[in-house]
Amino acid sequence: ETGVTQSPTHLIKTRGQQVTLRCSSQSGHNTVSWYQQALGQGPQFIFQYYREEENGRGNFPPRFSGLQFPNYSSELNVNALELDDSALYLCASSRAPSRDYGYTFGSGTRLTVV
Amino acid sequence: RKEVEQDPGPFNVPEGATVAFNCTYSNSASQSFFWYRQDCRKEPKLLMSVYSSGNEDGRFTAQLNRASQYISLLIRDSKLSDSATYLCVLAPGNTPLVFGKGTRLSVIA
Question: Are A68 and A61 in contact (CB under 8 A)?
Answer without folding.
Answer: no
